[in-house]
Amino acid sequence: MQISINPAGLQGWTGAMLIVGLFEQNLEKQLIDLDPLFEGSLTKCLQQQNFTAKAGKVVSFQLLNGNPDQLVLVGLGNQQEFNLNGLRKAAALGARAVAGRSGVVGIHLPWGLFNTEEAAIAVGEATRLSLFKDLRFKNNPEKLENLDRLDLIGLENLNEASLQKIDPICQGVELARQLVGAPPNELTPKALAEIALLIAKENDLKAKVLEREDCQEIGMGAYLAVSQGSDLDPKFIHLTYVPQGEVKRRLAIVGKGLTFDSGGYNLKVGAAQIDMMKFDMGGSAAVLGAAKAISEIRPNDIEVHFIVAACENMVNGSAVHPGDIVKASNGTTIEINNTDAEGRLTLADALVYSCGLKPDAIVDLATLTGACVIALGDEIAGLWSNSDQLANDLKKAADAAGEGLWRMPMRNSYKDGLKSMLADIKNTGPRQGGSITAALFLKEFVDASIQWAHIDIAGTVWSEKERGIDPAGATGYGVRTLVNWIINQ
Ligand code: BES
Ligand code: MN
Ligand code: ZN
Fold this sequence. Notes:
Layout: E1 2-6, E2 17-23, H1 27-31, H2 42-48, E3 58-62, E4 70-77, H3 84-98, E5 104-108, H4 116-130, E6 149-153, H5 166-181, H6 189-202, E7 206-210, H7 212-217, H8 221-227, E8 235-241, E9 249-261, H9 282-297, E10 302-313, E11 325-327, E12 333-335, H10 343-356, E13 361-366, H11 370-376, E14 380-385, H12 388-401, E15 404-407, E16 425-426, H13 434-443, E17 451-456, E18 462-463, E19 473-474, H14 479-487
Parallel strand pairs: 1-6, 2-4, 2-5, 5-6, 9-10, 9-13, 12-16, 13-17, 14-15
Antiparallel strand pairs: 3-4, 7-8, 8-10, 11-12, 14-17, 18-19
Helix pairs in contact: 3-4, 4-5, 5-9, 8-10, 9-14, 12-14
The protein binds ligand BES, manganese (II) ion (MN) and zinc ion.
């Protein structure tokens, strides 16, 4: 999808399909500019259809022999409540209304209320990402519905170079959605590692994959314990982006990469939705999506490490017993009182490894706890951090990306819930505050001198229904927040 700017405004624009956003207030006045395009009949048509520009309402008109020949009006609701997310939603609704047709699409929105660059990027991303469809596994796929060309009508004073990051960021989100959507028989730890190597090769990242023996050698007993009940080998993935010139800051981002989580001997039963647990590699998808975007954007001054301890949590004769005690690579002994709290075991060794790289900051993303879904639902991820500055930076990056994120407390006394009679720590605390004890568990594996944040994306990785710019299914959550955070260091 090519994006262009058309500062001249509605009167000077020609194209096949026109999308216009309208506020509830002064609706008739807003139509004055449009009416001439339709020989004065528009106001009457809208009255017939009872269109009042309520947020989320869309009407579409086919205009025989017209230029444009389709007009889509999108309600923007109350101007006082309108924000960048409203702009994204309006773009998504408009795009879905014209999808599947070829020709130039023009979109006219209240750009003037926003920072021009932020508005253009938000609408560019929303348009493209709302049309994403995963047709890889269909024999007779419907047609893909990408737009050929999108004109941002009436957008003034924009440096077009700022539009250049839209494509790499969307590619990253699309990759993440495909990874999360892929079934666990296809997207195995090996397949994930191969995809990572391909990203690295395409865009010049350093790459390394540690095999089981390599991980044994550095004592990754927590991670390997999770993988030992699977017939598939674990793959520990480490990609590095090295900028040209001097490195001023070094970052590590770590993603939970369970290509399937059966729960292990604490098997997922009842309402636990075992069939959804292919999405338990959503953290790694965000990390690899960000790696793809960053490897194309190639920001200066920052080195970024992308780390995934990939494996499956399965059940066989060698699987972990509930009650096993294992040793992580920092020497900490862990009593595995619940084999379904496996993500934190893999992350423990991945975090120790990341600290060994001596980065300035570490961010991990993980579909870690059902408790986080209960707390925040499926539109907001939980954020825990040992650094106010890092937490604020990530919140800002998420806000700019339109991804929901909310900081959660790390109350030290809750660590008592992880006390083990025999080992240094156990992997599972009480049900209450389950996402907080999970974060406190991870903190045990991070050097206190390094800024660290943990993002629990258990709710946001997947959407049951089409919502905003997300399709039903994998959302690709995290890529846009990570990329914003990295490039704004
Ligand atoms: N992958 C799950 C977390 C999860 C649950 C993600 C539901 C999305 C939806 C994780 O490995 C898990 O099983 N966590 C347990 C932890 C518990 C045993 C302490 C959970 O949340 O139930
Ligand atoms: Mn689990
Ligand atoms: Zn899991």
